[in-house]
Specification:
By secondary structure, this protein is an alpha/beta fold. It is built from 14 helices and 13 strands. The longest helix has 16 residues. The N and C termini lie far apart (about 60 Å).
């Protein structure tokens, strides 16, 4: 029996796969992909690999047009305008600045937002279960819980901690909600915070020097495209100024930062692909509820801890997802 005849005999169980293949065999669909990173990275690869698994192959039945803002606010509007102007079948955007800009630019093109902040707090949607409009996507856990956890981990490694410098990129200017959440988390731990802004990597040395002059005993890296894109430079600068760092991207801990408590961006990319697949097959984006990732990873760089003269409690090592020796 030929395979086609077998599929027909199987009845309803084979209808959806056949329909799916028929959809993907037609015209080439276009996806506009907005990333705050400086260039291609594993999160992009994970998204594209999952799309391929779901039946969408770059250059065959889908064309993904990538744009990277390199964590710089002045690049956001031009990139968004360019992609929206090309009228793709769907948009996918990482980070609040790019998502907010994309939402402002179009109410028609389906938009999948991948953010680690609460999408309600930053004004993307008003309801996780029923986002409505053209926006859906994936988010992390509640911001307060995550911000407090990172700061609490710092206090366990630096018991005398009272002052924490916050490294924040100008790309997140106007993000008062998440900043207020971080302040609330610090207040609960009796910690004093002070922001030190950076725009480009060459600003890092000045920011770290100013942080030390202020009396900072540790560093908190605010999540964003800049901190993701320049992980190695941030880790090196923090260590050079003897500032133990709690990081919002595990890439910084992998590059030499002290610790990270962060969402798995590759998993975020894979879930984003699932939403794109649904949209390209005809489901209105506003009917797809926002998904909340439930898992965050703790990465501890023991080599950096030793270099900074810090003792890592065995209890932390035991619960860490990854320990760098």
């Amino acid at each position: 029996m030929r395979r086609r005849e077998l599929i027909i005999l199987l009845g309803g169980t084979a209808v959806w796969p056949l329909a799916a293949r028929a959809e993907t065999a037609g015209k080439v669909r276009r996806i506009g992909y907005l990333s705050p990173a400086a260039g291609p990275n594993p999160a992009d690869d994970a998204c594209e690999a999952e799309l391929r698994r779901l039946g969408w192959t770059q250059g065959q039945n889908v064309r993904i047009e990538y744009r990277y803002s390199s964590g710089r606010q002045n690049t956001v509007s031009p990139l968004v305008a360019e992609l929206v102007g090309s009228n793709p079948d769907a948009l996918i955007a990482w980070s609040p600045p790019l998502c907010i800009a994309a939402k402002r630019a179009t109410t028609q093109i389906p938009l999948v937002c991948l953010v680690v902040w609460d999408p309600i707090d930053i004004g993307l949607i008003s309801n996780l279960a029923h986002p409505g409009g053209n926006v859906t996507g994936v988010t992390g856990l509640g911001s307060l819980e995550i911000f407090a956890k990172r700061l609490q981990l710092l206090t366990e490694l630096v018991p005398s901690l009272s002052r924490v410098a916050v490294l924040v990129s100008t790309e997140v200017q106007g993000s008062s909600g998440p900043k207020d959440t971080l302040k609330a988390a610090a207040k609960s731990l009796n910690l004093e915070l002070h922001d030190f802004e950076v725009k480009v990597p060459s600003d890092l040395d000045t920011a770290m020097r100013s942080a030390k002059d202020w009396g900072a005993q540790a560093l908190y890296t605010f999540p964003g495209g800049f901190t993701f894109s320049f992980a190695k430079q941030i880790a090196d600068a923090a260590n050079a100024y003897q500032l133990p760092s709690a990081n919002s991207h595990k890439e910084i801990a992998l590059a030499g930062g002290l610790l990270a408590y962060a969402a798995d961006l590759k998993e975020l990319g894979r879930r984003g692909a699932w939403y794109l697949d649904k949209i390209l097959r005809g489901t209105p984006s506003g009917m797809l509820p926002f998904e909340q990732l439930s898992k965050y990873e703790l990465v501890i760089n023991l080599k950096t801890a030793n270099a900074l003269g810090l003792n890592v409690p065995p209890t932390l090592i035991a619960i860490a997802d990854q320990v760098i020796q």
